[in-house]
Amino acid sequence: MRVAIAGAGAVGRSIAGELLENGHEVLLIDKAPTAISVERVPRAEWLLADACEITSLDEAALQRCNVVIAATGDDKVNLVVSLLAKTEYAVPRVVARVNNPKNEWLFNEAWGVDVAVSTPRLMSALVEEAVSVGDLVRLLRFSHGDANLVELTLPEESPLAGTRVGDVSWPDDTSLVTIIRGTRVLTPSREDSLEAGDELLFVAAQAREQQLADLLSVRREDDTRR
């Protein structure tokens, strides 16, 4: 897979290193000469150019890329790169970094963004995920279909503990994609049983998140009296 990364700062270089380790081709693009540090990621291709310019993206042969990652520290640049990648070069997958959470609403399909990654939101979500049991935590937002990657650690008192996956009436527009049980990562089948302490990862429509939380969590006395 060929991946172009706009922004060769610490974030871009780190992503490039991971992708190269996994056997992918990586092109790093940055307009700042000081950012071109070939020795830091020697196996990547490097291009000194402005990723917001069509001529630069032509030189980068963006049409040959399977994925473009807009990873600069400027949200305006990341939006322009995403839009150009999708509309001018028909890149199948565009991932964009959100630096300011106030701008997150802009990073959607209209701007060519398939997946928006907000570092502040992700960090806060990971903190919540580490300390929360029984609460639904949103980890990642997908622009297409208004879907999110969400996580919930099943509490001991959950009525679904011990229930087979295939026997649960899941809300529409939700899919259980992974069960993390201790050190194991399970691809759920209909016969697998849910256990207290399981970390459940779902892809769910935002409108269904509350239904999912209500289904999985413990019903409080206050709720039953309403």
UniProtKB/TrEMBL annotation:
Organism: Streptomyces thermoviolaceus subsp. thermoviolaceus
Keyword NAD annotated: yes
Protein name: Trk system potassium uptake protein TrkA
Every RCK C-terminal domain range: 137-218
One Pfam family cited in the UniProt record for this chain: TrkA_N
Domain RCK N-terminal: 1-117
Alphabetical keyword list: Ion transport, NAD, Potassium, Potassium transport, Transport
Keyword Glycosyltransferase: no
